[in-house]
Amino acid sequence: MTNAHTKPTIVVGYDGSDTARAALLYAARRARPGGHLYVVHAIDLPPDFLGSPYYSGLLTERRARGSELLGALSRGEDSLAEVDVHTELLGGPPAEAIAAVARARNADEIAIGARGLGRVRALLGSVSHELLHIADRPVVVIPSGAVEKIE
Fold it and tell me: How far apart are CA 55 and CA 49, in angstroms?
């Protein structure tokens, strides 16, 4: 996908966790200098049965938290200085949102942190595990054990 004449484009799934931050740093290094970095945060959509105004209130709250999380990236993050950073706040399942942004932006690769929650997906994590199955481009998964090596 990337050749000698184009700048790399990388999509990162971001939830504010240590592994997501490590994935962000990894992606920023891969995209430098002058590449494009799309940082994606997906919010869970409230269930329809809540009805208004409960649905609207919960959705507004989740969007505000996501916007705050993505907005904090631009403050004091020197590692992002050499890349063109874009943020995407989407509703829906995280793996699907990340894969959709990667397709839409014609990304060269996807980076995501694995929190390794749960016994079944102890090595990866549910979002990274699902992303490996639905993505149509390379996916780099940063496990919690590699966080110190990335930073």
Answer: 8
Distance CA 147, CA 75 (A): 21
Count of structural domains, the chain: 1
Per-residue buried b or exposed e for 117-146, using 16+ beta carbons within 10 Å of the residue's own CB: eeeebeebbbbbbbbeeebeeebbbbbbeb
The pair of structure tokens assigned to 29 is 């290094």
Distances in Å between the Cα of 29 and the Cα atoms of 38, 67, 78 are 13, 24, 11
Q: From CA 62, how far away is CA 58, in angstroms rounded?
A: 6
Rg value, the chain, Cα: 16
Mean pLDDT of 4-28: 90
Residue 44: give its domain's CATH number.
Answer: 3.40.50.620
Q: What is the pLDDT of residues 100-140, one digit of tens each?
A: 999 999 999 999 998 765 554 455 568 998 999 999 999 99
- Indicate whether 1 belongs to any domain: no
The domain of 54 spans: 9-150
